[in-house]
UniProtKB/TrEMBL annotation:
CDD domains: GDH. The keyword Hydrolase does not apply. The keyword Oxidoreductase applies. One of its GO terms (cellular component) is cytosol. One of its GO terms (molecular function) is glyoxylate reductase (NADPH) activity. Keywords: Oxidoreductase. PANTHER family: 2-HYDROXYACID DEHYDROGENASE-RELATED, GLYOXYLATE REDUCTASE_HYDROXYPYRUVATE REDUCTASE. Residues 9-326 form the D-isomer specific 2-hydroxyacid dehydrogenase catalytic domain. Belongs to the D-isomer specific 2-hydroxyacid dehydrogenase family. Residues 116-295 form the D-isomer specific 2-hydroxyacid dehydrogenase NAD-binding domain. This is Glyoxylate reductase/hydroxypyruvate reductase.
Length: 328
């Protein structure tokens, strides 16, 4: 079959080796790829997608009306190499009858591990401590020096008790957490009962938690949920962790809360924008630990995500059920 008769797949980045291998075996398709580890420039995305039947994209690609128009009526499947799909203009996609898939389940453990790592790093002040060792600030053992907050006997509030939220909570149980509370769009009794968690309001999460952990998806309802009012309600000793999406937290309000002593510390794996500018005021705060969106960054998880993304795409293009189709 000549490439002009083959269905076109456009891939917006080099993907992890196992997915890449699977893609290379899809020789009945005309696969075109932005062959780089760097993000595809917008104009290349618009050019590359023209006439595509399938689009394999990343969470860094904004798949909006312009991209969909450029792709044209051939486009049948958008397969994103991510759990979150807030970068896809779902309304437009739905209108055009395009199917969408994502990669839930395969990165749950990795993301939960990173969330716990970030929580411990933040509450035990590890970056500050490491800095003191390097800059000679370590003079002697001192009773109150670099004291932080411990998990034992604490109340942990989880915003979003889905797969990842639950996996985080399960990993925190052995640390001796006394009470779990959670909020979500609605109660999730089957998850809550595993950790004996109580469903509460957003206000109560803010007021009662020693640690607030954000694991929800980004929607109009959750955008800016952690804002001035939320921080005002939090305990002065409380710590905020966000490993979901940056815009759930209002960063200006967070900066004010951290500098005025309204809350003790924050750990963010996600920011607005990404990357966060290197001169951003949050980066100068000792009580704010920022990581570059590495929640799912284990080799196994990223390989599994890439395989699932390609499988989703190929099944979708074949008109078959996709392993992880998003119900739009
Ligand atoms: O999968 C996602 O949605 C991420 O944020 C990266 O793992």
């Amino acid at each position: 079959m000549s490439t002009s008769e083959q269905k076109k797949i456009f891939v917006t980045r080099r993907i992890p080796p196992e997915g890449q291998k699977l893609l290379s075996q899809a020789d009945s398709y005309n696969v075109q790829q932005w062959d780089s580890d760097e993000q595809i420039p917008r104009d290349e995305l618009i050019k590359g997608v023209v006439g595509a039947h399938g689009l394999l994209c990343l969470l860094t690609d904004n798949i909006d009306k312009e991209v969909l128009n450029a792709a044209g009526p051939n486009l049948k499947v958008v397969s994103t190499l991510s759990v979150g799909f807030d970068h896809l203009c779902v309304e437009e996609i739905k209108k055009r009858g395009i199917r969408v898939s994502n990669t839930p389940n395969v990165s749950t453990e990795a993301t939960a591990e990173l969330t716990v790592a970030l929580l411990l790093t933040t509450c035990r002040r590890l970056p500050e401590a490491r800095e003191e060792v390097k800059n000679g600030g370590w003079k002697t053992w001192s009773p109150m020096w670099l004291c932080g907050a411990g998990l034992s006997n604490s109340t942990v509030g989880i915003i979003g008790l889905g797969r990842i939220g639950l996996a985080v909570a399960c990993r925190l149980v052995p640390f001796g957490v006394k009470r779990f509370i959670y909020t979500d769009f609605q109660e999730i009794p089957e998850n809550a009962k595993e950790i004996n968690a109580e469903y509460v309001s957003n206000e109560k999460i803010a007021e009662d938690s020693d640690f607030v952990i954000v694991n929800c998806c980004l929607t109009p309802e959750t955008e800016g949920l952690c804002n001035k009012d939320f921080f005002r309600r939090m305990k002065k000793t409380a710590i905020l962790i966000n490993t979901s999406r940056g815009p759930v937290v209002n960063q200006e309000d967070l900066h004010d809360a951290l500098t005025s002593g309204q809350i003790a510390a924050a750990g963010l794996d996600v920011t607005t924008p990404e990357p966060i500018p290197t001169d951003h005021p949050l980066l100068s705060l000792k009580n704010c630990v920022i990581l570059p969106h590495i929640g799912s960054a284990t080799l196994d998880a990223r390989n599994a995500m890439s395989v699932l993304t390609v499988n989703n795409l190929l099944k979708g293009l074949a008109g078959e059920p996709m392993p992880c189709e998003v119900k739009l």
